[in-house]
Automatic annotation (TrEMBL):
Lineage: Bacteria, Pseudomonadati, Pseudomonadota, Gammaproteobacteria, Pasteurellales
Native source organism of the sequence: Actinobacillus indolicus
Protein name, as recorded: RecBCD enzyme subunit RecC
Any Pfam family hit: RecC_C
Domain of life: Bacteria
Assembly notes: Heterotrimer of RecB, RecC and RecD. All subunits contribute to DNA-binding.
GO molecular function, one term: DNA binding
Gene: recC
Entry keyword annotation includes Chloroplast: no
UniProt function note: A helicase/nuclease that prepares dsDNA breaks (DSB) for recombinational DNA repair. Binds to DSBs and unwinds DNA via a highly rapid and processive ATP-dependent bidirectional helicase activity. Unwinds dsDNA until it encounters a Chi (crossover hotspot instigator) sequence from the 3' direction. Cuts ssDNA a few nucleotides 3' to the Chi site. The properties and activities of the enzyme are changed at Chi. The Chi-altered holoenzyme produces a long 3'-ssDNA overhang and facilitates RecA-binding to the ssDNA for homologous DNA recombination and repair.
Amino acid sequence: MFRVYYSNQITEQKNLLTAILAKDPNPDPFSQEIVLVQSLGMAQWLQMQIAQEIGVSGNVQFPYPTSFLWQQYRVLFPDLPKENSFDRQSMLWRLMRIIPQFLEQPSFEALASYLSQSDQLKQYQLAEKIADLFDQYLVYRPQWLVLWEKGQSQAVVDEIMRAVSFKQKNAKEIATNVAWQSILWNALVTDIKQDSDEAIFNTSHRAYLQQRYFDKLDNLTATEKARLPKRIFVFGISSLPHSQLAVLKKLSEHCNVHLFFTNPSMEYWANDREDKVLEKLALKDNLSETELAELFEKQGNPLLTAWGKQGKEFLNLLTETGIQDISLYNHFEDENTTLLTQIKKSILYSEYRSTFHLGQQDSSIQLHACHSKMREVEVLYNQLLYLFETYPDLSPKDIIVMSADIDSYAPYINAVFSRYEKEKRYIPFTLSDQKISYINPIIASFLQLLSIKENKFSAEEILDLFDISAIREKYQFNEQNINTLREWIKSVGIRSGLKIENPEWQNYNSWENGLNRLLLGTSLKAENNGWQNILAFDESYGLISELTGNLAKFIDNLTAWHAFICQSQSLSAWQEQLFALVAQTYQENDQSIDAILTLQQAIRDVIEQIQHSHFEEAIGIDVMLELFTQQLSEQRSHLNFLVGKVNFCTLLPMRAIPFKVVCLLGMNEGEFPRQQTINSFDLMQYAPQKGDRSRRDDDRYLFLEALLSAQQMLYISYIGQSLTSSQDKLPSVLVTQLFDYLKENLPETDYAKLLSVHPMTVFSPNNFREGKVAYDKEWLEVKNNILPRKDFLQKLTKTQEDIMSDIPLTQFIHYIQEPIKYFFQQQLGVRFEQNEDKIEESEIFQLSGLERYNLLDDLIQVEEQDIELFFENEKLKGNLPARYFAEINKTKLTEDIQLLRNTLSSYLSQEKNVIEIEHSVIFAERKYQLVGNIPNCFNNEVVLWRVGGLRDKDIIQAWIYYLLLKANNHPILSLRFYYRQGEKANCLTFNDISQTEATEILNLYLQDYLASQTELKWAITKDIREYFKSLKDPKKSETNPADLCRNIVELSEDPYLVRVITQTEALDFQDIAQRTEKWFGVMIESMVEQEN
């Protein structure tokens, strides 16, 4: 018995199914109930509903139709293999062997041209497309394959020629495609026959299998009949191929088959045509406007006609089959119907024209236009909060959010919905259907290791692998070790590349050179100079050397793997090395075991697929990467679906599970319906038939199913405005069709309420205007200025005892050099610097300013006879540019430093001493002491130098040293600061001042320093010379010092000063100017710059 149950509500069908299970239970408790579904989500939902209605859901199997029917074939034909010999993957690898054998034939000219480069990846991709096509032919055009096997290719051409959609201009192309496809198919059949006897082949071949199965069903023994299922339910499936429906029909002669079909309309709508089709017909037949209007009135609901092609064709198949049917339609008798229900009712009665109304509080249909995916998710979050507040009986499990590309939305969903996890406004949520390679770092890293053939092996790229705990633990690294390794890698000069030797130059920024330095450093010091072209690295010496060994082991394994994948390998070699790669890369533990088992199973599956097809050629890494990317991308996370939270998932066919609220994200033009690229050699495109699958038709029906499954609200979101220009963007054509339909059937005032256009950012004041929904209280507080604005520089609450009596000289100098920065860092603990910890990826071809300065700073202290050795060591460190650039820079560096070296030569040969400083002062009856050292004392002189230009902070440092020497009456004859000015060597000194004056200035500094422990005291410290020069400029004699300070401050880009300006009501520029004069007036007057 075969029965079809029609209903416009899947809940009605569910109720009937559970009623059948409850009232007519399976007499054999050990026999499984079979419920065919087309998605795992539907199986989960139905299982939960059965358990809820009956009390338990046990021994119920939810197979997919294709796998179930193959199981049934094997019940009556036990010799059939578990996997079909004509399985798509099996055909693919057989075609990989077969295709090259025929490329010399004339009909294969196009294929030969495509494969002319001997690219195995292109050959694989072509074989994949052809295997996919043959798989489609087996399901939808088996008669063509039978004709090809009989040598009747012309009959296939003739059938296509007779097709309605055939265009004469494609005749030659079709004949050519039929020719080469028939040759390949027959070669494939011959190849499969060699692996099986004729009986197994005929039962494996779907074109023959169905008829043999039908014959077998007509002649069953009692034992064979007992093996058949007692009954079969088909639930939540909107389309089946004609061949599968025929098998179920035949099976119904021996068991009960209950097919539940969600039919949107109780009227017969299979012959309805879209408006655009009727308009073309009117043009062709010269129909008048009256005749065309009459034709329109006879049509059904426009939405059903536009979106329901897939369901309509299946409905036609069911009708033509003559199966007994039962109707269970919900007529929506409630008078106070929402707009959503009105649309469903119009579809139910297949009304071409309707009169809708929108209630005052009716929000059952919503369209939201946003600027970005992030904004879509933020708006959705606020709208859901509003729904929970408005409808207390609504719970998170009543809401489903679907997107055609859930992987691209997942980061934004996690960011927005996880933000308030510890607050009352937190919404529990789950993410399903993500690619496992997107959410599991071990899977992602495995694919990364497969793709490293052309990689640069940059330091950052390798260090990123250690972010994965399973890799860290395998090589016995902890997070602190990784920080150490990062510093080591940067210090030994590793940037990118595995080997030192390159075709054109030696790469001393390679992993090989860096590791050699680290390993040598475990037993030697850098002071011993190079050994066998390696310079030791000091910091890897001692107990910490174990880190070096573990890193070397990891890089050695990686190098060996890279060498392996650079050549094509046999299948057995791939099998061995892939398992070894997983074993030597990832540590097995409770957190990683699932991912490791997934990888091991994927390796077995891929290897078995190739082995079964007897493909024995060597395989390149490009093909293996493609295989594993497909294998691991097909595996998605389904475990989180329907777990009592808001469900985020992919918009999949036949997942029309009823939810109170259905939300659709990313309904953008060009992105949904999803684009489908049809192969140019796909013969089915010329002769389409009822039941053929189309991605775009699937998506149209998906949209219809989403509308029908929404019980209370359909929420649609799309990117409706450009993020850069706010220019309007169109939604999906399906959304446009829906809203055009509503525009025709709703009053204009009601229609205008359906679209909500949202601001670009979450903090826009427009989010908080009347009519908008926003729960972002943080931004509301900002908008309303709830918190009174205070000046940023508030006085700190410190007692005198909190201030240390010993003042470090380095901190004191830092304060005078950059008082605002010092205050932020030392008193507030705030740092605005961006510590660029990223390691450069390319070898050095040109020295940066900092690299050049560091080399000059080291070079100035190198003896003349050791300069060549110095540069040789720098080369081994990876600090010099590659190839000839090294020689150019060596010459330039030597020339640039020569004059300063000559000037300092007499000092550099002497022993350096330090002067200990203890300068005491009493403030507020408490003694403070400035303590520290003044370096570079040579006999009776203090000589400082810098291999770069003279900076303000250098002048300030030298000035404070000078003041300390004078204030403490130290017997030093002079203090000199040498620096480079272009190619010249200049010297900074100070005119003599009295001990009393030096003490007064020092005490002023100290007083402001101590005051700044609680309240910032600051002056202009950048471009000091220019500041004082401007004050004395006759052309600027009218310039007020306070105004000049204001100009300097407002033009400053210093982040610390900018923060003070923007968060302070009014700065006292008069006070700043006076302090600048007190701090540095005497210093500027005393400065003497001399050219040597």
